[in-house]
Design a protein that fits this description.
21 helices; 5-stranded mixed beta sheet; mainly alpha; 489 residues; 2 domains
Length: 489
């Protein structure tokens, strides 16, 4: 019997470069499609957007502010707002530059999974796993890749932690990269550094799986402490222990042992989130498993201890376990806490499907191959359709007050716009993107008493007054402009 690869394995190996380019191209499309035509979201994109725009305006890079005062609500270190502020400086303050860092991080995550996955699991698993990831709703839309939140970069750093630990098996000095990776995690998410640290300890401590020596560990520790301490000292000079005490008490302790802001959930909360957002690819994996299952007695032979397969199984188990168990143990539950789990989920689905396809090739079952291919194509179609539908029906800028204001941006710039209430996302758009001022007016009389000719009013109902001209309407919201000169009666 020949050991030459055949079927799906042979096809993916022969055409890997082309197929990888297609996956990366699809990833870029899914990340960029209508990205500048989607609303700024209230949680937590608007918080980061306002703080980053104030960094650009004030130059306060250490003691970051929100609406002009030191920010103690967002108790995460400032790496994300630094990246957004640098993007604003380079490309101007707009919705695309707001989300650029997350887009780059998400695209890099898929690229890293492609490269590392091919070396560790073979071309078919790498390609399908990357395809699953780049079309996953949770990875793209839940507080992650298509927003200015921290989760896309956090997911990339978790993946880089795993890749570095895998490389350190054969080249112990690769472990030194763990230092700057963990430093980046701390500067991005503060005490969330405990998650990649738990993966490192779970992989390295039992039975001394990684014989590192003191050299790589010392270098890693140094490369972690230098940037973290540099920022820590600079931040301490701003307000001493005030910020750090809140970071520990709120961002670590309160989120872990209490339910903050009513974000509660039971022990199966994240399994529910996984099924809710990734049902398409879960069903494809289920079809593959039912069609050509891996029998329980054969599992141990797949990953024999002391082999590359065994080490790979341990690493994947630690990765999946930590990214799923730690959020589950925390009493505060939020859907985006599951984001670091999605790359290993994608690899798992890919491994199940590819193994089933290889078995179908081995036994020459044309029916099984057709069913598997149909399941994958259907899952891909549903995943892509869901992403496009969500963009138009839940994030469409044109149906929002933000879109109405942006459409009139050049005319509004330099004027004041009044409304009874502004949310944070609208505050960012009107001040930082458009360059107008916001005002508060409880009603028409209040607006007329405060405003000047040329100012604007956003109202949730029709307004009739000789000094006002209707400019635009979006849904129930209407925009009016006060005449440049009083109407002569």
């Amino acid at each position: 019997m020949t050991n030459e690869p055949r079927g799906v394995t042979a096809f993916c190996s022969r055409h890997y470069a082309l197929l990888a380019a297609v996956v990366l191209g699809l990833t870029l499309f899914n990340l960029m499609f209508r990205l500048g035509s989607e609303i700024v979201t209230q949680w937590d994109e608007s918080l980061y957007a306002i703080t980053a725009s104030e960094i650009v305006e004030t130059g306060h890079w250490v003691g970051t502010t929100f609406l002009g005062t030191l920010d103690y609500y967002n108790t995460k270190p400032p790496l994300n707002v630094w990246l957004i502020a640098l993007s604003f400086k380079a490309f101007g303050t707009n919705l695309l530059s707001l989300r650029l860092a997350s887009v780059v991080a998400a695209w890099a995550t898929v690229a890293v999974l492609l490269v590392w996955g091919r070396r560790s699991f073979g071309a078919p698993v790498a390609l399908l796993g990357s395809l699953v990831l780049c079309t996953s709703f949770g990875f793209l839309y839940v507080h992650s890749a298509r927003s200015a939140n921290t989760d896309a970069l956090f997911t990339l750093l978790i993946l880089l932690t795993v890749v570095t630990l895998w490389a350190a098996r054969e080249r112990p000095w690769q472990f030194a990269w763990i230092g700057p990776i963990l430093a980046a995690v701390f500067l991005l998410r503060g005490m969330a550094v405990l998650m990649p640290l738990a993966i490192v300890l779970a992989v390295t401590m039992p039975r001394r799986r990684l014989l590192l020596g003191w050299g790589p560990v010392t270098v890693a520790l140094t490369l972690f402490l230098v940037p973290v301490m540099a920022w820590g000292v600079a931040r301490w000079q701003v307000d001493q222990w005030e910020y750090f005490s809140r970071m520990l008490s709120y961002d670590l302790v309160a989120r872990s042992v209490t339910v903050i802001e009513s974000h509660r959930g039971g022990p199966v909360y994240y399994l529910h989130i996984l099924a809710k957002h990734q049902y398409d690819w879960l069903l494809a994996g289920l079809v593959a498993w039912v069609l050509l299952p891996v029998r329980w007695p054969n599992w141990r032979s797949l990953f024999p201890p002391g082999t590359i397969g065994g080490d790979r199984a341990i690493l994947l188990a630690c990765w999946a376990g930590v990214t799923l168990v730690i959020p589950t143990l925390m009493l505060t539950k939020l859907p985006w806490y599951l984001n670091p789990f999605y790359p290993v989920f994608a690899l798992g689905i890919a491994w199940i499907v590819v193994r089933a396809a290889s078995q179908a090739d081995a036994v020459g079952s044309r029916r099984s191959r057709v069913v598997l291919a149909a399941a994958v194509v259907l899952a891909l179609g549903v995943a892509e359709g869901k992403l496009i539908w969500y963009s138009f029906h839940h994030r469409d800028l044109r149906q929002s007050v933000q879109g109405m204001l942006l459409a009139e941006g050049p005319a509004i710039r330099g004027h004041r716009v009044y409304r009874s209430h502004w949310d944070r996302a609208e505050m960012f758009v009107i001040r930082s993107v458009i360059g107008a001022e916001r005002g508060l007016a409880a009603g028409l009389d209040d607006f007329l008493s405060q405003s000047r000719p040329g100012d604007y009013l956003v109202s949730g109902h029709a307004v009739s007054h000789p000094d006002l001209t209707a400019v635009q309407s979006r849904g129930r919201q209407r925009l009016y402009r006060r005449a440049d000169a009083p109407v002569v009666r």
